[in-house]
Amino acid sequence: MIIIFILILSLLVLHIFGMQGLYYSTIFYDKILHLIGGLTAGLISIKLCRRIGVKNSKIKTVLFVLMIGILWEAFEFAWDRLLVEGYGLPVMQLGLIDTLGDLFFDLFGVLSLLIIQKMIANKI
Fold first, then answer.
1. Helix (H, G, I), strand (E, B) or coil at 31
2. Mean pLDDT across the stretch 1-7?
3. Terminal CA-to-CA distance of the chain, rounded, Å?
4. What is the dihedral of CA 120, 45, 32, 34, to 10 degrees?
5. How far apart are CA 8 and CA 43, in angstroms?
């Protein structure tokens, strides 16, 4: 549980730095956050399934992460439509390629988690 807390806190801090300009000045900064976010959401999914007694599977974990990623992209879209145009806040979505790349890195993050989990289980 402490690992999840540290990852969420890290994502929050990195997002704050990103909003100060790193999203726009550092190549792949956003993608690194999505990779960490996918890994974190995957850990949350696994922990949540264990806590409520639901049999977890790799596909459930991947689908949970993709659902979180899609909801985040919807939030970015709403942010841009409601706050950027109205109040001049920084743009969060740079287009369809950015959105698909973000979802790909969410997926890459959860797949990395599942591979690491398998390696630990097999003691590789």
1. helix
2. 93
3. 23
4. 160
5. 11
User: What residue ranges do the domains of the chain occupy?
Assistant: 2-121
Pull the structure tokens for residue 37.
């976010």
> How many Cα atoms are found within 13 Å in the side-chain-facing hemisphere of 37?
26
pTM confidence score: 0.88
Q: State the amino acid at position 35 in one-letter form.
A: L
Q: 106 near 38, Cβ under 8 Å?
A: yes
The DSSP symbol for 56 reads P
Contact 3, 43 (CB under 8 A): yes
Handedness of CA 102, 91, 11, 71 (dihedral sign): negative
* 64 C-beta neighbours (distance < 10 Å), count: 19
